[in-house]
Amino acid sequence: MSTPNALLERNRDPLRLLKVIIALVVALLFIFPIIWMLFVSLKPKNMAVANPLDWFTPPYTFANYTEILMESDVLLWLWNSVIIGVITTVLTLIITSLAAFALSKMQFRYKTPIFLFFLAGMMVPGEATIIPLFEIVKSMNMLDTYAGLILPMIASPIGVIILKSFFDSVPHEVMESARIDGCSNWRLFWNIVLPLAKPALAAIAIFTFIGSWNNFLWPFLAIVSEELYTLPVGIPTFNSTYSSSYMLPMTVNAIASIPVIIAFLLFEKQIVKGVSFTGLKG
Questions:
Q1: Which residue in 67, 64, 90, 59 sits closest to 246, CA to CA?
Q2: I need a labelling partner for 78 at 20 to 30 A (CA). Which of 88, 132, 232, 233 fits?
Q3: Which one has a higher pLDDT value, 270 or 247?
Q4: Crossing angle for the helix pair 198-214 and 157-168, to the nearest 10 degrees
Q5: Does 49 lie in the same domain as 171?
Q6: Residue 225 to residues 136, 143, 162, 219, Cα–Cα distance (Å)
């Protein structure tokens, strides 16, 4: 009879060590640009670099960060990005969850055509809607405003579809029992269905916030005032001013990246679960 140790040895992957080494090499390739960016941001401004190793050796200084934070609008751009990202995420969760609940658990006319309309929305690339969105926002006098940046971005067909699929998995018997006990549709939504959908809501929230944080095209078209610039719009403007120097542009990029890196480290498990839950890659 085979012992447990013999079974363990038999099932051990002979290529495990090779796979671990390959994974570490790939991880280093991905993280190296971030490490280089942080080192460059700590180098003295206009320092001469004779060879690549000079980027990683002393001297170091935080003077670049002080100059950027005190003498530029980077903090304002960062604040705009946070405000727009948070409000867009909250409104998207509210609208998509309500729409998904209606499509999943309520009966009304034209329910199937409306759902097919949401499915069709996934097949339309965002770039194809830019001109109609711009004309609508312009006609409503919302260009160069927070509302003009946020409202066009809260429509999320994929969010509605993901949540509807999740709500469909809630047993019909649970819903009927709650209705017999006198639960209204709002209480069914708030007290029963929504708490069960936390994994789906977390996935949608993560991808909505990241999409808003990285969004360049729509803010670039809808913003005129520098006071409303977000980081994706403001950083290229800043970099074009200091195109002859590596240090200050890298410092700005580091400031823009550090909040996202911290968020990833704090919510790593939720992000991984969100990717596996939605089936999205990349």
A1: 64
A2: 132
A3: 247
A4: 170
A5: no
A6: 20, 10, 36, 11
Q: Within a domain: residue 52? A: yes
226 and 107 inside one domain: yes
Task: Write out pLDDT tens, residues 31-69.
Answer: 898 888 888 888 887 777 777 788 888 888 888 888 888
| 129 and 102 share one domain | yes
Closest by alpha carbon to 278, among 171, 222, 208, 200?
200
The answer on pLDDT for 280 being more than 50 is: no
Q: How many CA atoms does the CB half-sphere of 49 hold within 13 Å?
A: 17
Q: What's the Rg (C-alpha) of the chain?
A: 25
Confidence band of 279 (pLDDT split at 50, 70, 90)? low
Say yes or no: 31 and 115 in one domain.
Answer: no
Q: Which residues are within 8 A (CB) of 235 and not within 5 positions of it... i.e. 6 or more apart? A: 77, 249, 252, 253, 256
- pTM of structure: 0.80
DSSP 8-state secondary structure symbol assigned to residue 153:
G
In the chain, the number of structural domains is 2
Which tokens in the block code for residue 237?
């403007």
pLDDT of amino acid 275: 63
Residue 8 lies in a domain: no
Closest CA to 104 of 124, 118, 91: 118
Is the domain of 102 the same as that of 86? yes
- Note down the domain range covering 33: 16-65
- Provide the token pair at 181: 């006990």
Is residue 80, in this structure, part of any structural domain at all? yes
Is the pLDDT at 149 greater than 50? The verdict is yes
